[in-house]
Structures are given as structure tokens and as C-alpha cells.
Recover the amino acids of this structure.
């Protein structure tokens, strides 16, 4: 059996009739932008998250950028971001004219390490963006304590964490603003690009509605220099079909995660994901760690199991930030993590048989790795858990 890393068509196959009907409804309505579907989706998603306002925009990257701009963050400012994240978190900051400042991840959660925040704060710092990477909630209490002490806004990047809970409360209910992506592969995915910001702050919501539509909510009256970033009616209608299933699909992800965690526990040289005591994760990705990651991925591929790396290059080492940011060695934890992480197949549409196949392949690949003398020669420290090799002070 082969197990693809992701099967993007599976969600549509399950919901085909409802999605077709929703799309048809929009096509025949004659309203394609800023119409009833957007209005209904915004109300439904705000209710799901437990916030007063939801403003839907063109993408997750735009959601982050516009949330920052709604808070008047721009040129001359700094925004603290995780060193280990998808580059969109950084690019959204750069797009406002502000400078992203990297903070190293925690070794176990891979999320921003709150203990490293204070040293990154300068007089120019305006906000912190914790990312709930892989669907695992970051430690918001610790982040907010630092933010309060220094008068900073907290804008969450929840692009991978729809429905996740922190200490029992949904992500997005305790900070200034929270950005989501509806990219097709996300836990709540459209059939194209999309994003949203949720907030309890009336003024922030109003600014966002202006920013996404040329600075205007009344035709041809332009209050601020906005842009064009709107979720279209077709995508909103598709998301309205999927939203009622989000909790069930997240539960299906959690069931896959439980099987991986129990059936692959204790494999030598493999670190399984850590779930923090405050976290109800939504398993956007299931990420393991191995000092021999690339070999492990090849061995899994040879057994028909697709994997991906999230992410192979930390933003500060990508060409986009070369020259403007400290390079190699400046974020050693993030750099080491990016060399060692490997994402196993994960999603609501993996069958029991698929999971059986992944578990068997991982066991076999690890066994083969242990038996291969060339492996040992080429990587003498391999086999140690990554935490054991990390300097205690790092
Ligand atoms: C997907 C993602 C984004 C960007 O969302 P888009 O809709 O693709 O623009 C931002 N941050 C993180 C962590 C993401 O995973």
C-alpha cells in the first residue's frame, strides 16, 4: 500500500454534493464579492471561535499583515516572530514595513520559547506573533505576561490551529487579534486562497474591514490607504459547508495522532511530538524528529510512505532575508530543528489501513537504519535523541 503525504481531493470527495450545491448557489446569485456568504461565514466563524468579530480576507498572509496594520504597526517598528515557522509569518511583518525579530523555539514544543522573549525586545518593538505551529498551541500565558510588562500587542498566527484550545479556551479568544489561513491543506481549507482575522476589539475589526477593501466600507469613500484582500463568495460558501465538520475532522486527526504516539513510542533515534499540559492540539501536522532525517525519509519513501519537511530552511537563512538578518549560527536551535524534523502523513481522511502502513514502515525503517553500518559511520552521533545532544545552555 502507498500512503501519500496528503490527499487534497479527499475532502471534496466526502462533501461533493454539499459543496457543489453551495458553489451553484453563489454562481446563480450574481453576488461574487462581499455578499451574503461572507457575512454569514464571518458570523459563523466568530461564533465557532467565541469572539465578537471575524473579518475574512484574501489569505492567511494577508490576515497577519492587515492585523498588524490595523494596530498601526509599520516602518520603524519591530515585531517578534518565531525563528522556526513558515516564512509567511515573517513576510507579513516585512510587508507592513516593520522588521521581524527572531526568537528561538522551545526544544520540545517547537513553538516560540517565552524565556527568550525579553532579550529580543527593543524600544522599537510593538508586537509579538506566537505561531501555533503544527496545530500545537504556543504558551500564551507566558507570552502575554511578557507582552503586558512591555506594553506590546499579541497577534496570534493560528494558520495551522483552527479549533485548537489553550487551557480549555479556543485559540484566538484572549489576545488582540488572531490570524487564520484557509489554504486548501489547512485544517479548515477552502478550494483556493483565503484567510480571516478574529478579534473582540470593535475598532480593530472596523480597521480591518477598511483595509481589505481599499480603505472603504461605503462605495467611493476612502478613509485610509487600504488594499484589496477579500475572501470571495464561492470560497466563503465552501467554508460554510466545511466549518460544521471541523471538530469532527480534528477528532479524526487526533485519533491518527494517538495511534502514531502509542504504536511508535520509544523507537530509537526518533523523537515523537510533545503535547504540552496546556494544549489541546489539532494535529495540522504530525512531526517527528531524527538526527538522520533525510535517510529516514528515503527509507519511508521506499516503503511507499510520503513525508515532507516543515520547514527545511528557517526564514533567517532563506535568500529573502539574506543580508538583512543575522545568518547561519544566529538561531542554532531553529537551524538544528529544521535539519531534523519530518512530517508523517496526517489528515482526517487517512484510513486505519493507511495508519497501519505508516506505523509498519516507520518501525522497519528505524530497524534498517540501526542495522546499517554505513549509516553509523557517516553520522557518529546518530541515535542520540536530539535533546541529549543539545547544549544545556542553548
Ligand atoms: C499557511 C500559513 C500561513 C499563510 O497562510 P496563506 O493562506 O498561505 O497565506 C502563515 N503562517 C503559517 C504558520 C502558515 O502555516
Amino acid at each position: 500500500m502507498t500512503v501519500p503525504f496528503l490527499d487534497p481531493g479527499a475532502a471534496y470527495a466526502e462533501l461533493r454534493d454539499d459543496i457543489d450545491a453551495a458553489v451553484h448557489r453563489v454562481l446563480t446569485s450574481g453576488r461574487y464579492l462581499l455578499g451574503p456568504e461572507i457575512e454569514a461565514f464571518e458570523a459563523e466563524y466568530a461564533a465557532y471561535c467565541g469572539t465578537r468579530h471575524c473579518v475574512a480576507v484574501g489569505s492567511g498572509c494577508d490576515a497577519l499583515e492587515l492585523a498588524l496594520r490595523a494596530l498601526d504597526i509599520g516602518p520603524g517598528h519591530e515585531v517578534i516572530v518565531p525563528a522556526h515557522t513558515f516564512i509567511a509569518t515573517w513576510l507579513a511583518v516585512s510587508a507592513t514595513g516593520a522588521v521581524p525579530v527572531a526568537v528561538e523555539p522551545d526544544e520540545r514544543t517547537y513553538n516560540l520559547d517565552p524565556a527568550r522573549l525579553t532579550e529580543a525586545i527593543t524600544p522599537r518593538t510593538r508586537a509579538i506573533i506566537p505561531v501555533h505551529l503544527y496545530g500545537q498551541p504556543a504558551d500564551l500565558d507566558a507570552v502575554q505576561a511578557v507582552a503586558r510588562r512591555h506594553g506590546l500587542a499579541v497577534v496570534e498566527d493560528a494558520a495551522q490551529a483552527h479549533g485548537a484550545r489553550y487551557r480549555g479556551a479556543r485559540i484566538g479568544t484572549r489576545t488582540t487579534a488572531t490570524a487564520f489561513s484557509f489554504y486548501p491543506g489547512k485544517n479548515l481549507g477552502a478550494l483556493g486562497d483565503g484567510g480571516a482575522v478574529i478579534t473582540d476589539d470593535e475598532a480593530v475589526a472596523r480597521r480591518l474591514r477598511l483595509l481589505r477593501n481599499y480603505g472603504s466600507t461605503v462605495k467611493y469613500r476612502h478613509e485610509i490607504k487600504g488594499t484589496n484582500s477579500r475572501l470571495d463568495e464561492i470560497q466563503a460558501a465552501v467554508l460554510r459547508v466545511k466549518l460544521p465538520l471541523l471538530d469532527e475532522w480534528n477528532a479524526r486527526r487526533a485519533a491518527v495522532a494517538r495511534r502514531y504516539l502509542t504504536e511508535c513510542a520509544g523507537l530509537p533515534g526518533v523523537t515523537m511530538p510533545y503535547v504540552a499540559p496546556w494544549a489541546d492540539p489539532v494535529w495540522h501536522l504530525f512531526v517527528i524528529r531524527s538526527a538522520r532525517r533525510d535517510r529516514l525519509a528515503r527509507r519511508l519513501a521506499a516503503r511507499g510512505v510520503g513525508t515532507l519537511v516543515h520547514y527545511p530552511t528557517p526564514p533567517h537563512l532563506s535568500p529573502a532575508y539574506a543580508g538583512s538578518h543575522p545568518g547561519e549560527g544566529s538561531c542554532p536551535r531553529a537551524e538544528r530543528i529544521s535539519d531534523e524534523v519530518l512530517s508523517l502523513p496526517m489528515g482526517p481522511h487517512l484510513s486505519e489501513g493507511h495508519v497501519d502502513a505508516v506505523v509498519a514502515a516507520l518501525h522497519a525503517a528505524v530497524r534498517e537504519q540501526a542495522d546499517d553500518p554505513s549509516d553509523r559511520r557517516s553520522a557518529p552521533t546518530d541515535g542520540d535523541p536530539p535533546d541529549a545532544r543539545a547544549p544545556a545552555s542553548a
Q: What stands out?
A: Residues 59-61, 85-86, 88-89, 131, 157, 159-160, 181, 183, 193, 195 surround pyridoxal-5'-phosphate (CB under 6 Å). The CA atoms of residues 56 and 196 lie 4 Å apart.
